[in-house]
């Protein structure tokens, strides 16, 4: 159970009446257990669709998605999604949101509290246990969402532009927080973003997708010294080289979009 | 112009101390009551428009004799049962229609037909089936309240964020339990809004039904007093039922505010 994700010859067709729209075409890739993969692509390339297919929220049209060799046939607790709009349960407090998955796992009340508290503390939410989501800022909501997903211990984290709605300093703080957690907990992460810098900074691999219908254009290995500070990484020559490579590949796609 | 407007709204929206707020709020009522008091027996004959003081005295008498309390008890019981039934049926129907196409297909036509019917027009039919009295009043209240409850529950259940449902599913909630774990808690605040809309409708339906469909309750007092020309008594009953509706609504608002703290 190490969270190895295999996507093979994936195709997703949306049907609306007579019309068929191919969102994803012949897409194959793998994410090793514990690996951090970012997916970038022009808007409408089906990157969110890909994430929801892996999550099991949507059905594949053909091809296969498997996690640790087991074909995905619907949502399951081996995978956890973090949504851009947080998707917290508004009627539950921070604590009750984080315990949700543990309740569903059948933990008793005390275990739920102890486990949830660990993740609440990990996400710097200590003291906010009894607040309702409406009382929290966007950054805090996203931390609660992350705590809620981590608490039931899925092996694979699927993140759909989770920091897209936050301002720059907050986004950077959460990126570093996520990296710490990823290192400590050894999760597999599939991270959707349209922000090239974010993708390169966070990931071990970046997959660039083609424009409509979406498929793999290229996967780049990102080999940065992660022991360095953010400032050292961001300002390094290596970083801007990789960033430029990703940017160029991505813009080949957005250029076709402009011409089309 | 813009400056003047904002000045005016500043004056109005400023926080007033509670006692001042109270006076400002009730002052218009006091003015109208005073004008009414003056007009009665001077501009309009007292026999047609009894003075508020006379109405008030009659009201006190009717309370003291226990007559009004008994009538209010009967009327509020009918409202309570009628609304409760409309909630029980309306919430399930509204959610059912929102979440299942076959339920929608079946009930759609009935709701579309029921919608424009003035419910009090059905009182004679209800009397034929259920006789005069509580059954008739409850049926009319139930029918009148059903639609606002159904519509609000429907809209609420329609509006459940797909990501919330997915979140629950990924954490292991089965499709069957999604209803209880996500859809119902997420829709309750909006369902309650529908119930709140149903409260004044229930009182309207109640009075309409009791006027001809019952021999007891506040509506029956209004009609009999009117027929006998006992106008202070008629007004007193109208005031009593209006006040009851007002306080029920106020109480409900307070309940809503305290229970749905997350909204």
Name some characteristics of this structure.
heterodimer; A: 260 residues; alpha/beta; six-stranded mixed sheet; 10 strands; globular; B: 263 residues; mainly alpha; MetI-like fold; 11 helices; 82% helix; 0% strand
Residue share in β-strands of chain A = 15-25%
Low-confidence stretches of chain A: none
Query: Which geometry of chain A do the CA atoms define?
Result: globular
Structural class of chain B: mainly alpha
Number of strands of chain B: 0
How far the N terminus sits from the C terminus of chain A, by CA atoms, comes to 44 Å
Task: Report the mean per-residue pLDDT of chain B as an integer.
Answer: 88
Major sheet size, sense and barrel closure of chain B: none
Q: Write the element-wise H/E pattern of chain A from the N-terminal end onward.
A: EEEHEEEHHHEHEHEEHH
Which strand order do you get reading across the main beta sheet of chain A?
Answer: 6-7-8-3-9-10
CATH fold-type name of the largest domain in chain B: MetI-like fold
Average pLDDT number of chain A: 89
Alpha carbon gyration radius of chain A: 19 Å
* Main beta sheet strand tally, sense and closure of chain A: 6 strands, mixed
Question: How many angstroms does the end-to-end distance of chain B come to?
Answer: 37 Å
Helix content of chain B: over 70%
As for the number of domains of chain B, it is 2
Low-confidence stretches of chain B: 1-7
What is the helical fraction of chain A, as a range of percent? 25-40%
């Amino acid at each position: 159970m190490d969270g190895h994700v295999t996507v093979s010859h994936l195709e997703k067709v949306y049907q609306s009446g007579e019309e068929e729209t191919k969102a994803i075409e012949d897409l194959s890739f793998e994410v090793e257990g514990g690996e951090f993969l970012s997916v970038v692509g022009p808007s409408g390339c089906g990157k969110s669709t890909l994430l929801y297919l892996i999550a099991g929220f949507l059905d594949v049209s053909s091809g296969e998605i498997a996690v640790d060799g087991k074909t995905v046939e619907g949502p399951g607790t081996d995978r956890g999604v973090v949504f851009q709009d947080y998707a917290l349960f508004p009627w539950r407090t921070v604590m009750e949101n984080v315990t949700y998955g543990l309740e569903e796992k059948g933990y008793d009340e005390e275990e739920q509290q102890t486990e949830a508290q660990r993740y609440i503390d990990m996400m710097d939410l200590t003291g906010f246990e009894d607040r309702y989501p409406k009382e929290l800022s966007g950054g805090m909501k996203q931390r609660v969402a992350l705590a809620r997903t981590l608490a039931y211990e899925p092996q694979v984290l699927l993140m759909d532009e989770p920091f897209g709605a936050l301002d720059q300093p907050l986004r950077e703080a959460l990126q570093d927080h996520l990296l710490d957690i990823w290192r400590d907990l050894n999760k597999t992460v599939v991270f959707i973003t349209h922000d090239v810098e974010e993708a390169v900074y966070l990931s071990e691999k970046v997959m660039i997708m083609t424009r409509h219908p979406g498929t793999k254009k290229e996967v780049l290995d990102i080999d940065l010294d992660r022991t360095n500070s953010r400032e050292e990484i961001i300002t390094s020559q290596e970083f801007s080289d990789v960033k430029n490579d990703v940017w160029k590949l991505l813009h080949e796609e957005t250029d076709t979009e402009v011409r089309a | 112009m813009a400056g003047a407007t904002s000045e005016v709204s500043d004056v109005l929206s400023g926080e007033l101390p509670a006692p001042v707020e109270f006076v400002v709020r009730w002052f218009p009522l006091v003015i109208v009551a005073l004008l009414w008091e003056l007009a009665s027996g001077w501009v309009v004959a007292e026999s047609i428009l009894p003075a508020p003081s006379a109405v008030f005295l009659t009201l006190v008498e009717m309370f003291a004799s226990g007559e009004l309390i008994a009538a209010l008890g009967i009327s509020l019981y009918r409202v309570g049962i009628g609304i409760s039934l409309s909630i029980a049926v309306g919430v399930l129907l509204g959610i059912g229609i929102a979440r299942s196409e076959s339920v929608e297909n079946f009930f759609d036509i009935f709701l579309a037909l029921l919608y424009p019917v003035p419910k009090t027009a059905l009182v004679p039919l209800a009397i034929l089936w259920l006789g005069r009295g509580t059954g008739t009043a409850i049926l009319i209240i139930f029918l009148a309240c059903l639609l606002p409850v159904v519509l609000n529950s429907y809209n609420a259940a329609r509006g459940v964020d797909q990501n919330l449902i997915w979140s629950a599913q990924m954490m292991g909630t089965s499709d069957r339990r999604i209803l209880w774990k996500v859809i119902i808690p997420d829709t309750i605040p909006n369902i309650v809004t529908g119930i709140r809309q149903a409260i004044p409708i229930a009182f309207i339906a109640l009075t309409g039904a009791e006027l001809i469909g019952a021999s007891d309750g506040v509506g029956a007092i209004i009609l009999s007093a009117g027929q006998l020309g006992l106008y202070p008594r008629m007004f007193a009953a109208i005031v009593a039922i209006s006040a009851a509706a007002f306080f029920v609504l106020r109480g409900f608002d307070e309940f809503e505010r305290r229970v749905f703290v997350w909204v």
